[in-house]
Amino acid sequence: MERIRSRGYAYDNEETSLGVSCVGAPVYNDRDGVIAAVSLAVPTHRFKHKRTEYTAAILEAAHRISRIANRGMGTYTERTDHASKA
């Protein structure tokens, strides 16, 4: 779990359903508390070839949703984009 927290996303490689892989990232409130999550599930044969792209897209979506959710509620702390390390 610590590795997932530090990099900011998690993978599910056919752990829930055979033939399906996922990537997910948290949505944060203005105090860096997790309030939701976004994820993408695709057939594993597609996921293997586009893992880095999917990870970057989910991280961007989670960051954008966090910013939108926190408008008028304080400053959202930007996180380092870890997608390049995927």
TrEMBL record:
Transmembrane regions listed in the UniProt entry: none
PANTHER family from the xrefs?
HELIX-TURN-HELIX TRANSCRIPTIONAL REGULATOR, ICLR FAMILY, HTH-TYPE TRANSCRIPTIONAL REGULATOR RV1719
- Gene3D superfamilies per the UniProt record, alphabetical: 3.30.450.40
Output the lineage of the source organism: Bacteria, Bacillati, Actinomycetota, Rubrobacteria, Rubrobacterales
Name the UniProt record assigns to this protein: IclR-ED domain-containing protein
| Gene Ontology MF term list | DNA binding; DNA-binding transcription factor activity
Q: GO terms for biological process?
A: negative regulation of DNA-templated transcription
- Tell me where in this chain the IclR-ED domain is found: 1-75
